[in-house]
Design brief:
It is built from two helices and 18 strands. It starts with a strand and ends in an 11-residue tail after the last strand. The chain has 280 residues and is mostly beta strands.
Amino acid sequence: MTKAMAKTLPLQGRAVLASMIKGLVGAPETNLAVTFADCGDASFHAKVTDVEPKQIATGSTTDITGAGHLDEDISGATFDMEMTGLGGLELVQNCGGDGSQQKECDIQALGVKVGSLTYKPITFPIKAGDITGIPTVAAALNSGIPAVAESTTTTLKVTASNGDKVFCVKIMTKAMAKTLPLQGQAVLASMIKGSVGAPETNLVVTFADCGDASYHAKVTDVEPKQIATGSTTDITGAGHLDEDISGATFDMEMTGLGGLKLVQNCGGDGSQQKECDIQA
């Protein structure tokens, strides 16, 4: 694990970041394009063929509804809904329950509430055939939400009371073209280039062995205990191995603040070097 050591952001940067977080940089309300994908397979009893509307706006609440075809009657069901943002950041978790009951779940970006998703109840039984208005999810999004909450994927799964899979749909949003005010453009450009006056950062390095009794090695140390941005540093481990190993594969991932995925799908032959991009 890495964590920034104490540093002070220059007053200019602090003021700009504060205004960006509060949505005061002059950014207008954002129109989000809505697309969808049915994520069920042959074992599901319904296929979602459409989702409306095709556009929603921040600063408002919009009912997003589905349509499709159901191949058998459903007398009752449960639902499970989650939302991820840019880079896989978890925005809505553990949102589920009785499919006949309404439930509101907060959308949170890095611990800050930026809106809510409300599952609208289904009236059972649902008869086999063409269906409309199922599912219905009310999306309420604050004005000036951060970019990580503009490009989202909401996955909604409904399971019948008897355990049968009813449907699975992914609803995606993405910001439509807009122009950032000149003030914001200049500030963001300078931040990206590292010219807002922020010094290079020293990061404290800590570690934890995450194996259990089934693993053949235990990591007892990692060095160095500090690294700096703007440089490349080898981080090495030490420990004890209880048997010879003739070959291996590896899997490596990195997450950042709020669970934001920074490195994904980085793995392969343990005897071969591999470089993986860190992307925020």
